[in-house]
Structures are given as structure tokens and as C-alpha cells.
Specification:
single chain; about 25% helix; globular; 8 helices; disordered C terminus; about 30% strand
Amino acid sequence: MKAIVQDSYGSADVLELEDVDKPVAGSGDVLLRVQAASAFIGDWHVMTGLPYVFRLVNGLRGPKARVRGQDVAGRVEAVGEGVTRFRPGDEVFGTCNGSFAEYATARADKVAPKPANLTFEQSAAVPTTGSTALQAVRDKGKVKPGQKVLIIGAAGGVGTFAVQIAKAFGAHVTGLCSTTKVDLVRSIGADEVIDYTRDDFAEMGQRYDLILDIAGRRSVSHLRRALAPRGTLVFVGGEGGAGGSEASTASSGRRCCRRS
């Protein structure tokens, strides 16, 4: 089968289209015929091997898994031993081992039936960013109806899901983004949109019950200036920049720090 593979770390130049062996569904696995795959920031980290700590897990000289890609949508080609939830022909989406290929294997508990009202392409864009946003807003942020929520990075992959999820929970949502993304963020349901190139949200006098900082580039002290007395601050990732190290020690999208 054809697949996008890499044997060393670097820019996109390290990616090659090659013929590789078709994977086989092991116990608890499903074999998927890939219909669509999407890329997210994690794929870039694996490709470049940056930051270097990623190499301790993925391989020191090059990634242990040659085929790139994680998020996928496709049809079940075969099921492994013990899999009863799916059968060949089922349309599914989720995460897998190497989605940038014609076929890929996935744990049966890492895929779900594809919604009938979504295309394969739309479904493939959901798994990692969508589940991250859901975890941040619902599980860690514990958002409630009527709360004021600020989403920093509202125009990104996680941010666009977070805006819509927070709105679905009945929150009043403010999105922070650049000038060119204001209309996008407003179109997905944000009640208010702040252009960070023009205004500093911390100086506008508004206090939020939940602040979701997806970029992780602002200091905690700066964010706290816009946080309500009993508000919650949740970090998702953190690509460095001003305050990035402080944010990453507080959390990497899986914990929150609560202001007392």
C-alpha cells in the first residue's frame, strides 16, 4: 500500500511517499481503509522531533513508527480477535496508527461510528482537537450555563471546537483571535470577539468564570487579571513564548489552576 513515511526528524522534506506492507489487525484492533485523514500540531512535533523531549518517547534518531498521521475516518476492512462492536463495512472515525496511508490499524476503543451527517473529511478533523476541547471545557473547566468564558486562541483547531462546546453548555463566550479571524470566530457562535492586536483583554474590565488559554503564551499573572474571584484557568498545550514555561508547569491541557 502507499503511505507517507519518515525515517529522520526535520521539515516536511523528510516525508516520503512509499510502498509499505499493509498492516494486519491484531487482537482488539480494527483494520481501516482510510477515506480521510487530518493533520494537527502533534503531527508536526513528531515530524520535527521538537521539543527534544518528544524524542525520548518517539525515538532518539528518528520516529519509531514510520507512517505519519493519527486522526482518521474510514471504513472497517477487517476486525481482530475479540472485536464485536464493529464489522467490515462500518464507517468510523477516531485515532489510529499511521493515518497518512491507504490502510491503518486502530484500537477498537479508539474509534466510533461516523456521524451520518458528517463527511469523511469532516469526521477526520474531529478526534484529537475535538476531544481536547471537550476535555478542557467540560471536564477541567466544568463550565455551567450563564458563566462567562474567555477562549484564547479561539480561531485554532481546539479553539473553534471550544467556542461551540461552551456555547452548547449555555455559556456566554468571548473569543480572542487576530484581526483576520474575527468574522470566523463570530460565525461559530461567539457572543463577543476581541482582536488581540488591538485590545488587551486584561485591561478591558471584564472578569471571566473560565479562561481557556490554548496558546500558553501569556503569564499566569496576566491571565489572572481577567479571572473572576472564583474563576478557573485551564491551559491547553503551550508552544512557548512569553509565559509559556509558566503555563506548562501549571498544566499541559489536563489540569487547571483555580483562583482562590
